[in-house]
Amino acid sequence: MSKRLEAKRLNEVMYEKVVERFWRSDESARGEPCGILLVRCPQSFEETTREIRTRLEAELERSVEAVTVANREAAFLLFGVAWSRTHYLALRVKQELMRLVPGEFAIMIADAGEHAERNPRAFEKMADLFAQLPEAPEIVIFQEHVQPGGTQSVLLVDGDEEMRRYLELRFRLKGYRVLAAENGPQGLDLFRKMKPDVVVTDLNLTGMDGFHLLTRLHREDPNASSKIVVFTDNRVEESINKCFELGVADYITRPFSPVELEERIEKLLQ
């Protein structure tokens, strides 16, 4: 099953369970908060999800609703559990994953909020973001309503389609207006037309390499009104120095922390 189909199926089953809960509950229970914990572990899946469910039920002292997709992804729906408790439970689950899973895993938490049954779009965004997460022992937080001030824009230039879609979705969820280009010429064209607040670019680009793109951006914007962030796996000191000479505001290497990347972009925009 492709990632897109997995995301679609995960979205459907999560929302279906939430709607079922709404219709089964009495009036006093409707509108309760709903924490969500999503886990992907391609190895030892059945044993791992069983252990996680047991740990969650022991912590909450009641049964936990769980759904699985493609024998590698699971969503644990924590009805009646507030955001702070969901975050705490995720930390406990991460400990279990590090103990149980021989390979890497992905973990994300979300707060569907009160009246989750009225917001199907949130589950679609949640599943799409989770599908793009790389396997890494970091808890990723999905917060649909976090918005930076204003309507700031980010131009993302990256030839890796999977990485580009993942970052594009994360930036949109943070409230940015996102422009995406798969190569240097597209990136330069969008820069000229839209004058974004931030440019996030790889160095390994087709059509125009990253250094050439940085040179052209510097000519177009000599006063550096658009902040430029290089986001690459190139760790060569000479390359790093050259980027800063070309007016780059920040240089971030992969593998990376999505939270750190977002925080550094927010800092540039202050």
Automatic annotation (TrEMBL):
Pfam families: Response_reg. It comes from the Bacteria. Keywords: Phosphoprotein. The keyword ATP-binding does not apply. Residues 153-269 form the Response regulatory domain. SUPFAM superfamilies: CheY-like. The keyword Phosphoprotein applies. InterPro entries: Bact_response_regulator, CheY-like_superfamily, Sig_transdc_resp-reg_receiver. The modification 4-aspartylphosphate is found at residue 202. Gene3D superfamilies: 3.40.50.2300. SMART domains: REC (SM00448). GO terms for biological process: phosphorelay signal transduction system. This is Response regulator. It comes from Cohnella xylanilytica. The lineage of its organism: Bacteria, Bacillati, Bacillota, Bacilli, Bacillales.
